[in-house]
Amino acid sequence: MHDGRSPWRPVTAAYNGPTVRALFPGSFDPVTTGHLDVIVRGAPLFEELWIGVGRNSAKQPLFSVEERLELLAAVVAAAGVRARVVAFTGLVVEFARAQGIGCLLRGLRGGGDLDYELPMAQLNRRLEPRVETLFLAPAPEHACVSARWVRDVGRHGGNLTGLVPDCIRAAVERRLREGADRD
User: What global pTM score does this model have?
Assistant: First the structure.
């Protein structure tokens, strides 16, 4: 707490105390064990965690937004995590502001993620200073997992054990096989 004598001051001009609601946004196409790690470890940091599936018409997704919502709901339920799974369109920071969310939760696997995420966090802060971004590093066993790599491994018939949560692995493998059959 700032007592007027301490040199520490909250960076956010509109600081109103700790945030109780956070949003973990992403495409989740498909949900990976890395995503699950951030969800499980991030949820206890907030009173309420929202997991937001972004709609991006510029991408050709493996799963529809509705399917991703269902898969995420299954993963969250199997993990016993209390979280709200929602879809959103537009700028994530605008969605967060509209929902009264004060923090964006983002996973960082390494330097490449930081190079992408840091400028985005700075831009989001410029657009909405009351929404903070919190970076969470994954457990080491998940640092090499990405949805893009999961899709690539699965399309080539590789084993997805440990890359996607067990409760959705069959659905992901089935969809990847269907895509490979069309190629």
Answer: 0.86
